[in-house]
Fold this sequence. Notes:
The protein is mainly β and 193 residues long.
Amino acid sequence: VERSRxxxxxxxxQPYIDILDEGEELAGDNRGFEQGDTSGWGHGSNVSLTAQxxxxxxxxxxxxxxxVAASGYRNVYTQYSNAKQNWWYRLSIWAKRPDGAGSRxxxxxxxxxxxxxxxxxxxxxxxxxxxxxxxxxxxTDNDTERIxxxxxxxxxxxxxxxxxxxxxxxxVSYIKTRLGNLEGIPYCSGSGL
Length: 193
């Protein structure tokens, strides 16, 4: 059983999420950078994304995200995956900052329907100098066709680096809150974070 909190600073009361049955990984290319390149990933205009083998969580490669000193378009995202409508998904990614860089807050988001894009779910994550897994649960809409995982650094404007690895997008076939209400898990729709 996994437990996660969602947008705790946006919603006053966040029920715990109990995931009792996870489905298969959605098809997607190179989410762990093991091809030694950044195929299967995209990024905003104020980001440089490279595959490197020095700082890795698992396997031989991980992604190095260099945010340019600018405002806006500071994001990286996975290749889109086809998704079911009105369905819950579990997104996760491993991330760390360079040694000596301290901690910093980013937004982890579930995005739908590239290239128009809207936010289905979002949460703040605090990335430190140690590898950590960050998890986000979100539900698709009536018109969702494709979904992506996105990491956003728009709340800063200075140059910054973060390492990412082993991204995952999975279907969730059974989900409930501790109150037993399937639809009781708030998620961000529209503008959000």
